[in-house]
């Protein structure tokens, strides 16, 4: 697959039998990277399944039979699925809580 602005995911989660791998955009701010990673982690924590056929197209060298889950976050103006909305909300709540907790500990520390 040739990467384009509309086809490349910001983040990608590939779950194998014994490990989960999260790939994320390198050319963005640290805050955006954290948001991307938390979005992918949220899919894992929420137990979202995925369409392994899409993985085979994007990563032809990865054996789809060994992959448990694959979820990605794409650029472009597409209508988000319920799972994408859930992951986005969950990751936003985690990031907000982490930021608030960190700010409080800096003030009291």
List strands and helices in order, with pairings:
Blueprint: E1 9-15, E2 20-24, H1 30-45, H2 52-58, E3 69-74, H3 82-108
Antiparallel strand pairs: 1-2, 1-3
Helix pairs in contact: 1-3
Q: Would you give an account of this structure?
A:
- The protein has 109 residues and is α+β, with helices and mostly antiparallel strands.
- A hairpin with a 4-residue loop joins strand 1 and strand 2 (20-24).
- It has helices at residues 30-45, 52-58, 82-108; strands at residues 9-15, 20-24, 69-74.
- A 3-stranded antiparallel beta sheet has the order 2-1-3, with helices on both faces.
What keywords describe this structure?
109 residues, alpha+beta, single chain, 3 helices, 17% strand, disordered N terminus
Runs in which pLDDT lies below 50 for 5 or more consecutive residues are 1-5, 68-77
Q: What is the β-strand count?
A: 3
- One letter per element, helices H and strands E, the order comes to EEHHEH
In whole angstroms, the N-to-C terminal distance is 49 Å
Bulk shape: elongated
Class from helix and strand fractions: alpha+beta
Spatial strand arrangement across the major sheet? 2-1-3
Helix content: 40-55%
Q: What's the gyration radius in Å?
A: 15 Å
Relative strand content: 15-25%
Q: Give the mean pLDDT.
A: 74
Q: Tell me the major beta sheet.
A: 3 strands, antiparallel
Number of helices: 3
Summarize the structure.
The protein is an alpha+beta fold. It is 46% helix and 17% strand.
